Amino acid sequence: MKRCNVTNVWMKWVCRRGIPVMCLLILISSCRQQPKRTIERGFYYWKSKLQLGSTELNSLQQLKAKWLYVKFFDVSLASDGTGAAPVARLTADSLTTAQLKNNRVEIVPVIFITNETLQQSDSAGTRQLAKNIITLLGHISKQLQQEHYSELQIDCDWTQQTKVAYFFLLKELRKQMQQSTQFNNSLLSATIRLHQVKYSSKTGIPPVDKGLLMCYNMGNLKNPSTNNSIIEVDELKKYLGGLNSYPLQLNVALPLFEWWVLFRRNQFKGILQRIDPSILSNSICSKQNNRYHFLVDTTINNIQFYKGDILRHEESTAAVLQQTAAYVAEKLSPVNQQTRILFYHFDSLLLSKHPTHELEALYSRFHQQ
Question: In angstroms, rounded to a whole number, what is the distance separating the alpha carbons of residues 136 and 90?
Fold first, then answer.
């Protein structure tokens, strides 16, 4: 009888205390066993001449960045109406290409294609365009002394109206790549903008091996009421709530750049680069948050400003970049166990404003899941 009572007491304790403790141990064990995401590091290079100085080369070494996504040329409609034509073809400094090879930094060619080009091209023209792109890439590669690439990336802000033409071009490019010395067995990737994630049922999933999620240029640049068209976390969240169900494997790009947006009589007039805020004194402008209202007519950097003009300063701050990285890292699909993180873009002035420890912290965010 006493033995039975002891057994009952033991069973009651196990049910009340033991089982919850066991569940907790199992939970902790499963969390520890969750694989850590592997991160590869790189930058975008968006200038027409590939030439790096000591600052850029040192940054690559310090950050252990092994990938440089370089824009080789744009494809847009020729001004004479004869069809698609290459614009801003890349040239390269031979010393830079040698230094990149010595540091084992791999170049990935990127081609930017305008939507207008897709709208004006039929199937025959698209096939020819794919051939022309691979041919021109071959010519540039010889000048860079690059024999083979592991990846080719296409950058295009396609829409629901142009997706058929664009996806057809991607398929034709893949065929041409298989016949090319430089791109045989290479991956084909495509940039993915935020709206193409949110409305993927309409814009479709591109027929590529991998996508590159562009976490910038997310606001209406030309709207005077926009605060920061480059990057805003609240705006980002509107588009990426369903990111974890996006079926394509993704790399991620974060912005380092800044610019100034000019408005005159409440109308967008253009983007300006590299204006020193210290020049915009109280005698010239009144400042409200990131907006500078001109009080007088004046000339800055050979640009004429008029009384009433407004300059909106947009930048990628360290705090906003951290919030963006944390949100995207959490939302990435589990299929992204190996992700390449790129910064746009590679420039000595931008690197001086975003020191190594800041970029290291952003890379670290993506290790967390």
Answer: 11
Q: For residues 18 and 363, what is the distance between their CA atoms, to the nearest angstrom?
A: 41
Dist. CA 356–CA 299, nearest whole Å = 36
Three-state DSSP class for residue 217: coil
CB 284: neighbour CB atoms within 10 A? 16
Report the alpha-carbon distance of residue 207 to residue 188 in Å, rounded.
9
Q: Judge whether 65 and 43 are in contact, CB under 8 Å.
A: yes
Is the overall model pTM greater than 0.85, yes or no? Answer: yes
Q: Report helix, strand or coil for 186.
A: coil
Phi, psi for 296 (deg, rounded to 5): -145, 165
Residue identified by tokens 């963006």 is 324
- How far apart (Å, rounded) are the C-alpha atoms in residues 316 and 354? 9
Query: Cis peptide before 345, with omega less than 30 degrees from 0?
Result: yes
Alpha-carbon span 284 to 297, nearest angstrom: 8
The residues that bridge with 75 in the sheet, in sequence order, are 86, 113
Tens-digit pLDDT profile for residues 206-254: 999 999 999 999 989 999 999 999 999 999 999 999 999 999 999 999 9
Q: In whole angstroms, what is the distance from residue 54 CA to residue 69 CA? A: 19
Residue from 203, 320, 313 nearest 261 by CA: 313
Contact call for residues 308 and 296 (beta carbons, < 8 A) = no
